[in-house]
Design the sequence.
């Protein structure tokens, strides 16, 4: 029997939430020459965001890339794009991915506070410690070693949260300092959050410790239910020591079709048509980043070629099959402590609509049956 982490009972009683990767960079969500009916333009993304919030999505995550890399030739900046999507929607929460080291935390805190006021409390951030060295060095910024990048990110989060919640913000760290600073206006306070939610991701020991100490949400790369259980247990142990609670999301690439064979045929075609040079270049870059950890334990360290075709290991989560199979798989993750799925798709408009029409109703039926069974 697999060891499962202790799960906060509220996780089981609350409905699963769903986010999608915003295609604000070119190339789609798989590094493959297969047709991907998606578009990185704002007009397309505005249409997609409205469709997503009408098909059960709670969040959207705008990616951050600054230069061409591994199939992403063009990129829209994440914070500006996120605000544009917030203005185009009514309920969707939009998470902007940001890099410490390329943002001053005080400027970022001010920017997000404004976006949060404009959107009536729907802005959030995903703090990305960084794996792509060229994004820093080609901008003339220093590239820190793995552990130092996470130490800087942790201070960045503490700084931003202090500004958002204190009238006389103070912080004295190794990377950042605050001296009696009062940011006004503050972000909106809503019943479900005291400030814009702070997401972060990773897999390394450094990432797990940081997540437990300072994050509101911990994003995990795609992984098996057992692999996710291990991460949830580690992060939760740290959070408990610090008197905190962290919520968990997992990345998954969803291929829903009316038969299991159709879904797996699509997956096979994606991998067969992979852009081998781009995938191998990406794999080399990210594995080097992970190997630089103190214990050699980082994201992508056990990823195979096929996993890397979806650059956040989305295939490994196993959301591939019929609506019933996908919904059942999602409930397995929920029982282990997952509250949110961050989803990518091959053909965004069609697949988001398919998810809302075919998959989500089954998820809700299974959740209701589970509540009735345990309640």
Sequence:
């Amino acid at each position: 029997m697999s060891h499962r982490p202790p799960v906060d009972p509220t996780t089981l009683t609350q409905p699963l939430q769903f986010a999608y990767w915003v295609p604000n960079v070119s190339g789609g969500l798989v590094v493959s020459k297969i047709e991907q009916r998606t578009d990185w333009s704002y007009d397309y993304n505005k249409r997609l965001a409205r469709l997503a919030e009408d098909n059960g999505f709670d969040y959207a995550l705008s990616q951050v890339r600054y230069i061409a890399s591994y199939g992403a030739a063009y990129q829209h900046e994440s914070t500006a794009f996120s605000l544009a999507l917030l203005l185009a929607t009514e309920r969707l929460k939009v998470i902007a991915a940001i890099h410490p080291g390329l943002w001053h935390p005080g400027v970022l805190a001010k920017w997000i506070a404004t976006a949060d006021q404009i959107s009536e409390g729907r802005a959030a951030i995903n703090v990305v410690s960084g794996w792509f060295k060229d994004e820093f060095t080609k901008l003339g910024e220093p590239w820190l070693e793995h552990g130092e990048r996470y130490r800087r990110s942790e201070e960045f989060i503490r700084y931003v949260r202090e500004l958002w919640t204190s009238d006389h913000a103070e912080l004295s760290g190794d990377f950042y300092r605050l001296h009696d600073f009062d940011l006004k206006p503050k972000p909106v306070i809503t019943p479900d959050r005291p400030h814009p939610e702070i997401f972060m991701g990773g897999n390394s020991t450094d990432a797990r410790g940081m997540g437990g100490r300072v994050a509101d949400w911990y994003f995990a790369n795609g992984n098996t239910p057992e692999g996710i259980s291990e991460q949830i247990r580690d992060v939760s142990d740290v959070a408990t020591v610090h008197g905190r609670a962290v919520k968990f999301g997992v990345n998954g690439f969803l291929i829903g079709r009316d038969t299991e064979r159709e879904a797996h045929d699509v997956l096979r075609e994606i991998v067969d048509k992979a852009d081998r040079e781009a995938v191998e270049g990406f794999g080399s870059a990210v594995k080097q980043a992970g190997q630089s950890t103190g214990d050699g334990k980082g994201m992508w360290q056990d990823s195979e070629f096929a996993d890397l075709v979806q650059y956040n290991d989305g295939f490994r989560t196993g959301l591939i099959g019929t609506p019933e199979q996908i919904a059942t798989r999602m409930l397995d993750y929920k029982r282990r402590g997952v509250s949110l799925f961050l989803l990518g798709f091959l053909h965004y408009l069609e697949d988001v609509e398919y998810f809302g029409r075919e998959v989500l109703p089954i998820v809700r039926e299974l959740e209701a049956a589970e509540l009735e069974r345990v309640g």
